[in-house]
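REQUEST ID: PR-0412
SUBMITTED BY: lab tech R.K.
PRIORITY: routine
TASK: structure prediction, single protein chain
INPUT:
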Amino acid sequence: MISMFVKSIQIDDAKRVVVHIQDMIAEYLLKDDSKKMLKEMAEKALGSDFVKMEVSKSSFRVTVAEGTEEAAKEKIEAELLKYIEMAMSFMAQMDNKEE
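STATUS: complete
OUTPUT:
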């Protein structure tokens, strides 16, 4: 399910967790509300390991405390999956109300 929205999640040479977004939703990534939501999600999931987040047209990069990169990648992936599942459930409920 996550692959519908996310192309890949990896750790780059600078030890940041990089999430590449599918093209169909990339335009939403640059909206202020989306940036704020992503940052809050990353801060909540990572706690004190969160350092900063950068957003580009098709990806976002999360800098984390040194030595926590792999664990941070797993936490971000789990949190994204949770948010996607919530969004899909909400959309299904909206479809049911329209019928």
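NOTES: The domain at 2-98 is CATH 3.30.70 (Alpha-Beta Plaits).
REVIEWED BY: pending
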